[in-house]
Amino acid sequence: MIQGKNVPALGFGTWQLRGEDCVRGVDHALSVGYRHIDTAQAYGNEAEVGRAIKKSGVARDDVFLVTKVRQQDFHHARVLETTQESLKKLDAGYIDLLLMHWPNPDIPLAETLGAMNELQASGLVHHIGVSNFSPTLVEEAQRYATIFSNQVEYHPYKSQTALVQQAQKEDYLLVAYSPLDRGKVQGDAALQEIGRAHGKSPAQVTLRWLVQQGVSTIPKAGSDQHRQDNWDIFDFELSDEEMKAVFALGK
Question: Which of 43, 154, 172, 177 is labelled catalytic?
Fold first, then answer.
């Protein structure tokens, strides 16, 4: 639980999914059991994501829906305008979590987060956060808003220890994107060995490793089988030694 809110530990990322492939992918993910769906204005698929949620028959309030504002749209007026556009495309009534997609040193954080605070106060956005922020930038952002989440690239080969520790201390949600390092984990001998002990794949071991740290993760999967496989990580647990062996891959 983060700031009094339960967020599904495993989500479905929609980067690079377009058109009917996106609609079908999100619809299938929801049928499997996913309830955390991640998109962004830059992905060009918000309308398809919204259509899939409606099509799925899953109650809107049961889905934790995330989108992100492009860094070129961080000026106050553009944050408000583009979020209204996202709301229309998603046709979901509200956005559970609105993120700043990347840092933009040319626009003050106070301006961007001030606009996001207004959206939160209006009820159109329930939580606000950041993406690809360092611990120092998160600290700065916290001066202007209650930061619910920071979404970053995190997998066994990219250590994020400082952010994991900060998230635990400051009670915000750390979300890992590209958790499988674009498929590279599948060929890793150490992950294969751990997987054999549990009857699991290296990808499943990796996702389990993230979830056991209290990190939420949003793997993208283009096929029904991969979406199902990624979901099947809640029937086993990694030992302390296995967790350490995965951490060692990032050193």
Answer: 43
